[in-house]
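Fold these two proteins, one after the other.
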Amino acid sequence: MSAIGLQLQKSIGGVINTDDNVLFETVLSNFGDVSYDSGTGVITIGQPGRYFINWWVATQSALGDNAVIFSIVTSQDEDIPGNTPLKTGEVAGFALIQADTAPVTLSLVNKTASPVAYTTLMAEKAHLVLGQLEEIAGGATGATGVTGATGTPGITGASGTTGATGATGTGTTGATGLTGATGSIGNTGATGATGPNFADAGFSAFRSSFSVTGDTQITNWSVAAPYYGSASFNPTTGNFTAPAAETYSLKATISYATVATVTVTIPSGQNPAFAIQRTSPTATTLVNGLMPLINVNVALVLNLRTLIGNGTVTLAGDVELNEGDVLGLFYVSAGVTINISLGGGGTGLVWSVHRLT
């Protein structure tokens, strides 16, 4: 089965209406059984498989008080959103879909309750990458055994002597030569090693909302359907242990809300964040995402630097891990003691890790 990949770019600005598809004008890369219609914004995948999509849209403004929401919508009735509470900035998201039958179509759709204007500050307005995740089969077939040697042909018997002239003499037929021995059968080739199983090194987990005030590793995940676990992930501790030295895709979506009205100012230099960290053998931050702050200084009236009341932080990155590396998802308070509900508003948290090679 050939690999599938698609990379799209949008450079033309303007306004996109509610429920309209994002129209990418430029195809940067396209290989395998996948196509894109720039007139409708629809992507068509022509063969079954497992696919991941990363995307972002840079926005300038939107009408009303609503947050900006874009979503991957498929012909399999999937609607996978990404959102931001800010009208100006970048909204990003990702999706992992399983196409059991083909073709499957999908598009990036504006799900905001009002039209959204693309940014005027950047040449590139939106970007989307689609790729196929390899589903590796079992071990290779062993090599064919050596063919046995061919037996030596038997010796041909001598011809009989011709009878004397007169009555026709009949010569005696010589005896048939012996059949050569059958060559021995070659040894059976050894069975190839079992190939890696993608599902053993990947998981997608959900965590319902809970409150924190300081540095916290997020634990007690659920891998019940539609989410799924693997032998490498411990839902109770929240630890993922890399089963092999490979390249891995890390993703997390964390919504939050302040539990009460914020009455304190956060000092400069304190920047609370969410991070995917390697905890063993060496503590390392692999992917980091700052929580959105508001920073206002009105002379003689107001000086305020504090958290926005609610929002969503998206983490995504590909890293190389060694066998035995341990990863976790963390809230990093940076000394801020504000009571925060992670997964606030009932949206929860989603975290996933998948091996790419």
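Now the second one:
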Amino acid sequence: MNTAETYHIPVLLRESVDGLNINPSGTYVDMTYGGGGHSREILSRLGTGGRLFGFDQDEDAMANIVDDKRLTFVRSNFMYLKNWMRYYGVDSVDGIIADLGVSSHHFDDESRGFSFRYDSPLDMRMNRKAGTTAADILATYSEKQIADVLYLYGELKNARRIAAAIVKARSEKPISTTGELKEVVEPFFRFEREKKDMARVFQALRIEVNHEMEALTRMLNASAEVLRAGGRLVVITYHSLEDRIVKNIIRSGNVDGKTRQDFYGNVETPFASVTTRIITPSDEEMRENPRSRSAKLRIAEKK
């Protein structure tokens, strides 16, 4: 098995790339290159005149770059989509795809701190050259700030109690490893929900460390400007927070989901939904790739 395959098994591969409605001579952007699974499939459908840009802020993804002159790899956060397209002299693109899930590579790398399966440094940065780590957040945020992060991004009902315990624990010694964090928060979870709630704690911190919701919003707004009329936006989400942002921007053109109408009563949004329902993985895919179980695929077309 090659590096790319062990890095990440692409979710909803056929359905998502089909959703791009690829023009062999078109220009496409894979916003989450990772192991290159979606990019490889796109390249297989492009002709010699086609072009693909692959974004990833994680240096580890560079080991999976396909040797193909049609591919330009951009090591950057996808929120800077518009800036990079301008840099490369690209006025508009035919399709944009984003697989928002954290790759299995990140969960399996003990040094990154994304998983509570290992006792490792509380890092969680997608870009390890960036500043704030999860340990920094737990050391410097106020009790209210920590509670807000856990409630907003982890949807934990007992966020305030957990935050209070974290602040009490850090007054005695820094919380610098996943094991130390796990020890502090474990008492707040019932045995039957322990893994699920622990995952929510780690999810909340990861989202805060990487400013994921802000980056997603900026990327989607940039997509509306970069896509040509009739171009496709294809997004795979894994939790309700990011899915809500994607759904609202497609439906109403803004994060809040508040629709605005023009003089004729038409909703003012740059997108039109292509699918009448959310696309989810098949039972077979969910059996073969457990990570896909929470995946939702939305496809929209630029008006």
